[in-house]
Amino acid sequence: MMGPDGFGPSFYATFWNTISADVFEIFASFFDESIDLTRINRAFLVLLPKVDAATHPSQFRPISLQNCIMKGITKVLTSRLQATIQLLVDADQTGFLSGRRISENIVYAADLLRCCHTRKAPTIVFKIDFRKAFDSVNWGSLLAILKARGFDDRWCRWMERILRSGLTSVLLNGVPWDWIPCKNGLRQGDPLSPYLFILMADVLQRMIRHAWGLGDLFHPLVNNVSCHVLQYADDTLILCRASPGAAANLRVVLEDFASATGRDLGDISTSPSFLERIVRDGLPLYRAITRVTVGDGRHTSFWLDRWLPGRPLAERFPAIFSHCTRPHASVATVVTLGLDLQPRLSLAAEAELLHIRCLIDDTRLADAPDTRVIDSPSAPSFFSREAYRMLSPPRPRDASACIAWGLRLPSKLKIFIYLLDIDRLSTRANLFYKSCAPFDVCAACPEIETGRHLFFDCRLASDLWAQLDVPIPAGPFSVWDLRSPLPLPDKAWQFAAATILWAIWKSRNDLVFNGKSTTPSSTLRKACDDLLLWRWRLPIAERAHLDLLRSYILTRAV
Questions:
Q1: Angle of helix 244-261 relative to helix 193-213, nearest 10 degrees?
Q2: Where's the Reverse transcriptase domain (predicted)?
């Protein structure tokens, strides 16, 4: 789109032969700092709604429409900065940098957290998302950082002139308003802004590393490694060893970072997670599926837990429970201190009180912790998987899944064969249906590449099965319906059939991605190589059957 001067990219492309000398003169004037940038460093501020029917300023995203000549200058500066910024910014910063992927940080964070969970290592996971990150950049702090990082005086003067000469007009309903001089922040849409921002954000990386050097912050698992600060532009994830001192030191570092970069800690948008509320909301369901064997009674609710046969006491004696002033009292508290009831009980409550006192008199506490178990005959103690099973709706048993997951094959093959059997494999037909592929035609023939066609009906696949003397059933069928060419146990044939299908899939991928065509015989030989590699996964007694099948396949792969 065009900036305030009305000259868009198409104008420069069309009339380049006419205006090129003037453009070169502007660039030369910028280089020797003789140009008045206030005449060209102007932009329209356009508000793009983030949601439908936006009504609040926070629901809009501001975008700057700069003059193309100014954007060309900053683009040249960006190209120069890109050549060296990889050396200036920490490897854990993945925003806007070519060759770095945010997925690497995601995988690392997930692996580290899983490892910390397995080792029961206390860990602080601190997520920071700076509100209005680009808009709150302090120019004085940015210029000081550039000088500290070794940028020469000419570059710093260029940056200062670009920042301080900017004028912006808000474009409302296509009508520009008065020009506003810029005093703070970086323009969204300027090619130079992201790189200046990540240079500023890199200060936090260095401050964290400095705190580790002073012995304040540590990696969750290793002492001689600094805690990691994973960044994607302004999104920051800090993982460090948990302790009260670490939390206090982390706060000091963040306050120092705010002071060093001109930010205010109020700019950090926080979303607290009230774990107590989450746990409290889940307690009724938790108590409904569990039963408690009372030991010392300290962690069992007298009224709400099921620690006696039948329903909880609050449900069995609702009248007296309605007069209770401490509904969450533990069994130990009630047995030791007695009931705490409101005065003037109703007649129904008086009658129920006699039963409750008899229960209290008969209760004997032990010097052992309470034990909570799932209220299910198959669960001797509380397991998350058993709770999940009880809360999940009943589902019909999937015979195909049972066979696939029961094979002693690598996990990738189990997933592959299961997806094939339920027609969820990434064939061209499925990808085309999801608008992820431009066409659905098989790479080896003009037919539609469905799962059935690829693995059974295509020329390569049909010739392969014919060589093995394995008939293909008519109509819809499961891969487990294929008949073994030899009288062997089902598991041996299922193991071999899955491996053959995997070899067909790899041959197809070789053709699609590498342009290499194969023959049925070469595909069968590759399947035999995999069978030889994976036969050690089987019990010794079952390997003989697989070896017999492998020998048969080799004799047919001619």
A1: 140
A2: 29-285
Number of domains in the chain: 3
Residue 308 lies in a domain: yes
The alpha carbon of 131 is separated from its chain's Cα centroid by a whole number of angstroms, namely 21
What digits encode the pLDDT tens for the residues 424-452? 999 999 999 888 888 899 999 999 999 99
Place of tokens 């080896």: 444
Q: Are residues 534 and 487 in the same domain?
A: yes
The answer on 90 and 22 residing in a single domain is yes
Amino acid symbol at 244: P
Q: How far apart are CA 481 and CA 473, in angstroms?
A: 8
What are 268's strand-pairing partners? 130
Largest CA distance in the chain: 103
Q: Tokens 């007298």 correspond to what residue?
A: 302
Q: Which among 412, 415, 527, 413 has a CA at the least distance from the CA of 460?
A: 527
What angle do the packed helices 490-514 and 540-556 form, to 10 degrees? 50
153: containing domain: 9-269
Q: Give phi and psi for 236, each to the nearest 5.
A: -130, 135
CB–CB of 156/32 below 8 Å?
no
Find the helix packing angle between 411-421 and 399-406, rounded to 10°: 160
For residue 263, give the nearest of 136, 143, 160, 144 by alpha carbon: 136
* CA proximity to 491, closest of 409, 419, 411, 553: 409
Q: What is the pTM of this model?
A: 0.51
- The per-residue pLDDT for range 366-376, each reduced to its tens digit, is 998 888 887 76
For residue 182, report the phi and psi dihedrals to the nearest 5 degrees. Answer: -80, 135
